[in-house]
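User: I'm putting together notes for a lab meeting next week and I want to include a structural view of one of the chains we've been expressing. I don't have a solved structure, so I'd like a prediction I can at least talk through. The sequence is below, exactly as it appears in our construct file.
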Amino acid sequence: MKIRIDELKDKTVELSAEEPIRDFPTLLALQDAGECVFLSPLQVHLYVAREYDHIRVSGGVETTLRLICSRCLAEFQIDINSPFTIFYLRAAGLPLDEDMELTDEDLISATYEGDEIDFTSEIAEQILLAIPFKPLCSEDCRGLCAVCGNDLNTAECACGQHHVNFKLSALKDLKIK
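Assistant: Thanks for the context. Below is the predicted structure for the 177-residue chain, given as structure tokens.
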């Protein structure tokens, strides 16, 4: 998704699109690695406006993913809805000081060169930030039994009668002389 800078006069431009995953190489690589499966294309809705010396882009991106629970290994579906605001600055006017401290505005800023802005990398970044690092099918997921591997969300197992604490299990064979 791109916009030409000369289209931004004194008005806000509204952009909406349904973007396929194949247009986002980083998201496609994530899916090919087996981290997730995109069940729907990205729904992108942006408002782009010129403000003073920068261009403000606000909006959001939505999609549906299938993930694997990190506790019980069950597949589950999650809806991603990521609102964001990014300020674009022309790259030519920025100092390239390596020891410069970042401000809050710098963390939501991006640069552009030329006559158009390509939003592809920022849209993909918003999806990547919204995917849970440790996906859970539910907050109260009990996971798998450490002894027999049964899913504790569906049924109890006989192994649950003797509790094993793995935190100190390395010390069980330690003998003090």
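A couple of points you could mention at the meeting. Residues 126 and 155 are 38 Å apart (CA to CA). The beta strands are 2-4, 13-19, 37-38, 42-51, 54-68, 75-90, 109-112, 116-118.

User: Perfect, that's what I needed.
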